[in-house]
Amino acid sequence: MKLSIKYFLPTIFLLIGIGLYTRTKPPYSVQHNDIQTFVVVGSSASGQSVINELSSLIKKGTVSSKSRIIWISADKNAPYKRTNLADYIVDQKNLSRNKNQQSFISYHFNTRITSINKNSKNIELDNGQTVAYDKLFLGLGTTPLTLNIPGINTKGVSQYFTLEDVATIKERLHLGRPIRAVVLGSGLCSIECADALNKCGASVTVVTKSNNLLNRKISPQDATYIENAMIKSGVRYHRNATITQVIEKNNNITGVLLSDKTELPADLLVYAIGAKFNSSIAKNAGLTLLNEGILVNDYLCTSDPHIYAAGDCVVLKDRITGSLVHSEKWNDAKDQGVIAARAMAGLLVNPYEGTVICSLTKAFGIRFVFSVPLNNPESYDVVIREEKDGSYYKLFFQDKKLKGFFCFNIPVTKILTLRKALIDQKELTPDSLIDSSFLNDTFTIIT
Ligand SMILES: Cc1cc2nc3c(=O)[nH]c(=O)nc-3n(C[C@H](O)[C@H](O)[C@H](O)COP(=O)(O)OP(=O)(O)OC[C@H]3O[C@@H](n4cnc5c(N)ncnc54)[C@H](O)[C@@H]3O)c2cc1C
What we know:
Elements: H1 2-24, E1 37-41, H2 45-60, E2 68-73, H3 85-91, E3 105-109, E4 113-117, E5 122-125, E6 130-132, E7 135-138, E8 142-144, E9 157-159, H4 163-173, E10 180-184, H5 188-199, E11 203-207, H6 220-232, E12 236-238, E13 243-249, E14 252-258, E15 263-265, E16 268-271, E17 275-277, H7 280-284, E18 289-290, E19 293-295, E20 307-309, E21 314-317, E22 324-326, H8 330-344, E23 358-363, E24 366-371, E25 381-386, E26 392-398, E27 401-408, H9 412-424, H10 430-435
Parallel strand pairs: 1-2, 1-7, 2-3, 7-20, 9-16, 10-11, 10-16, 11-12, 19-21
Antiparallel strand pairs: 4-5, 5-6, 8-17, 13-14, 14-15, 18-19, 21-22, 23-24, 24-27, 25-26, 26-27
Helix pairs in contact: 2-8, 3-4, 3-5
The structure holds flavin-adenine dinucleotide.
C-alpha cells in the first residue's frame, strides 16, 4: 500500500504537469528551415486565415520555401466571407474572392476529407486519395440542421448558410414580381435574411417555434425591441409555430403549412434552424472532444501534437470567464487561424487570449448588440437605461464589473466601449460606462 502511494502521487503530479504544459506552451518546436507539408482543411474564416499566414511565412522565408500547402475544402466556390451573404442578396456583390494562387499551394476544392489516420499522419479524401501531412489544420466549422418535412426538396426552399443557398434565394427574387417569402428560425441568421429579403421588396413573414426572437440568447422582454423594429419595417411575425409541410405545385413552392394549421402563401421558404459541429471525423480519429467540439489548447493544438483546429468546430477558452466554450464568430476564427498557422510552423507565438462572445447586428435599420451567455441571471446586478433617443441599455454587473449586456439602437462608439469594459473587467459605474467613451484607437469592432 505504502509503495503504491509513493508512486501514485508523483505520477499524478507528473500528469497534471504535462497537462498544464500542453495548455500553456506550444506543443513542440521545429527548425524553421524544415521542409513541411501543411494540409489545411476548410476554406472559410479559419482556413483562409491559416492559408494567408502560412503563405506569408513561406514568402518571407520564415518557413522553408520548399514547404508545401495542400488546401482541401468541401466548398465548390473560391473562398468568400460568409458574414456578407446578406449584402450579396441585397447588393448583387460578387462575394467570391480569388483563391490565394501560389505555386506552393495545391487546391482540392469540392472535395471532402472522410477520415484522419493520426498514427500514419495521413487523411483520406472522398475521391479515394490518401494525403500525407506533417501538420494538419482542421477548420471544419458547422453544418446547418436540415428540416425533415414533406415537400422540403421543392424548388424555392433553401437554407441560409452558403453562397449556393444565396444563389437559390436570388433566383427566386428574380421571378419578375414581388415575391412572398417565409423565413423560419429565431436566430441572427434568420433576422439578417429577413431584413435582406425585405430590402429587396419581398413580402416577408418570419416564423419562430419559440415565443420570441433570439430566444436562446436574450430575454423575451429585450427581444420585443427587435421584434417591434422588424414589424415596423414591414416584416410580419408569426410566433409559436413551426412549418410542417411545404405546399407545392409542379414541384414549385406555393405555400407552407404551420403546426398551428395556418397556411401561408409563399414563393420562397428560407430556413436557418441551427447547426451541428463538424467534429465526427476528429472524434473517429481519436481526438479529444468536449460538448461535441474539438478541444484545443491556447495554441489551437488538438490532443494530437500534429493536428490543429480553429473556428466554429472547436471548444476553447472564453476570454472573459476562462471557461471552455464554442467559438462562433468570424473574426475570432480568423485570429485563431493566425496563431494556429504560426504554431504549426513551429514559431514561438503568444497564446490565444480567448474568444469573446459578442454579437453585433444591424437589421431593420437598427443596430443591436449582446454578449451572452449569462448563466444564473439572478446573480447579476441589472441596470436598465432607456434614453430619449430610443437607445436602450441593459447591463449586467457583478462586483461592479461588467459581465454582459443587451443594447439596442446605440452608437458604434458605445458598443466598442462596452466590449472593452467586458474584456478589461475593471470596476466601474454604469453611468460612467453609458455616459463616457473610453475608446482607444487600436480597438476594432468584431461583428
Ligand atoms: C449566414 C451567416 C451569417 C453570419 N454572420 C456573422 C456575422 O455577422 N459576424 C460573425 O462574427 N459571424 C457570423 N457568422 C458566423 C461565422 O460565419 C462563423 O463563425 C465562421 O464562418 C466560422 O468559420 P470556420 O472557419 O470555422 O468554418 P465555416 O464557416 O463553418 O466553414 C467550414 C469550412 O469547412 C469545410 N468543410 C467542412 N467539412 C469538410 C470536410 N469533411 N472536408 C473538407 N472540407 C470541409 C467547408 O466546406 C467550409 O469551407 C455567420 C454565419 C452564417 C451562416
